[in-house]
């Protein structure tokens, strides 16, 4: 339960953050929570059904099941603390490194670094390209608002599903690899409770990471971010079964987009963008350092 809350509370920023920002003033929070919960339940139950009781979608094939010990709870506690401070970190590094060996950790790190770099490049090129047809700084025409709103809900649903197939492993690692129907139902019930709590708080303090990026409250910008991010996650999901930091991919995406927007608006003060990018990267680095320290401590306790 602690792992489930800590992972969803910190990582929901990646998938639901832009959606919350652009809809919080026009859609009641419980309606958004209801949709997010429905997709979550369907994703978990489907994965459980097709993978013989395993809800991790194959992300844990390189990490054998271990009997959970008290020191495995250090990572979720650290994650909850960082979340209350509004610091987004890699839940995959923080949680899975307490179970994985050094070889798997190295592969996770390499895949995550590639994800950060690829997301930055793709986002930079994509936003330069679409600027020829779409100006995100201009208001959407009245007749197009409803179409973009519907498109955003579909893109968020697609992204939410894609993210869950990646990061559900960060919770499943604490569970037996095979769950019966009662057990998976209890897991889903708690997940849903967490989702409703997060939405009732408007995303929490960590939501500020999204809000300080340009135009993410606009439905058109939020939709484009979600689509690009979902496609990137889908690519890495199909690449191999090694877990990775989806947080690094998300921050890389936002960084590349911010650089493209600066490039397109050279009259803006360049000093305003680099502190934001620097702060995001420092947060990722802090999370990585904490993950390594916790992993070393757990290795010592073993």
Verbal overview:
There is one protein chain. The protein has one domain (2-301). The model has no long low-confidence stretch (mean pLDDT 82). Helices cover 70% and strands 0% of the residues. The two termini are 23 Å apart. It is mainly α and 302 residues long.
Determine the number of helices (DSSP H or I, runs of at least 4 residues). Answer: 12
Question: How many individual β-strands?
Answer: 0
Unreliable residue runs: none
Shape: globular
Mean pLDDT across the residues is 82
- How far is it from the N-terminal to the C-terminal residue, by CA? 23 Å
User: How big a fraction of the residues is strand?
Assistant: under 5%
Q: Which sheet architecture does the biggest sheet show?
A: none
Order of helices and strands: HHHHHHHHHHHH
The helical percent reads over 70%
Alpha-carbon Rg, integer: 19 Å
Oligomer kind: single chain
How would you briefly describe this protein structure?
Helix content is 70%, strand content 0%.
List the helices and strands and how they pair.
Blueprint: H1 2-23, H2 29-50, H3 74-84, H4 91-96, H5 102-130, H6 142-167, H7 169-172, H8 181-200, H9 208-211, H10 219-239, H11 246-264, H12 274-301
Helix pairs in contact: 1-3, 1-6, 1-8, 1-10, 2-6, 2-8, 5-10, 5-11, 6-10, 10-11, 11-12
Core attributes:
302 residues, single chain, mainly alpha
């Amino acid at each position: 339960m602690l792992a489930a809350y800590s992972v969803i509370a910190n990582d929901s920023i990646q998938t639901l953050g832009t959606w919350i920002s652009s809809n919080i003033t026009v859609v009641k929070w419980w309606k958004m929570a209801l949709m997010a919960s429905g997709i979550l339940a369907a994703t978990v139950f489907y994965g459980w059904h097709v993978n013989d009781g395993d809800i991790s979608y194959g992300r844990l094939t390189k990490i054998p099941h271990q009997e959970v010990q008290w020191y495995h709870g250090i990572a979720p506690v650290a994650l909850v603390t960082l979340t209350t401070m509004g610091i987004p970190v890699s839940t995959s590094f923080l949680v899975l490194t307490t179970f994985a060996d050094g070889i798997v950790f190295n592969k996770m790190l390499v895949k995550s670094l590639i994800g950060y770099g690829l997301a930055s490049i793709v986002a930079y090129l994509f936003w330069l390209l679409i600027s020829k047809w779409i100006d995100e700084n201009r208001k959407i025409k009245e007749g197009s608002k409803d179409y973009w709103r519907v498109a955003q809900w579909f893109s968020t649903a697609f992204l939410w599903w894609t993210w869950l197939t990646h990061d559900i492993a960060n919770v499943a690692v604490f569970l037996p690899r095979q769950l019966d129907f009662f057990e998976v139902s209890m897991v889903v019930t708690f997940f849903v409770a967490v989702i409703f709590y997060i939405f009732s708080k408007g995303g929490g303090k960590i939501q500020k990471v999204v809000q300080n990026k340009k135009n993410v409250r606009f439905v058109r910008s939020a939709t484009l971010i979600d689509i690009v991010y979902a496609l990137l996650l889908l690519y890495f999901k199909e690449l191999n079964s090694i877990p990775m930091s989806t947080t690094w991919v998300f921050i890389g995406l936002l960084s590349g987009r911010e650089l493209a927007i600066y490039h397109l608006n050279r009259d803006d003060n360049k000093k305003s963008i680099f502190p934001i990018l620097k702060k995001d990267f420092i947060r990722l680095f802090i999370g990585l350092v904490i993950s390594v320290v916790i992993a070393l401590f757990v290795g010592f306790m073993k």
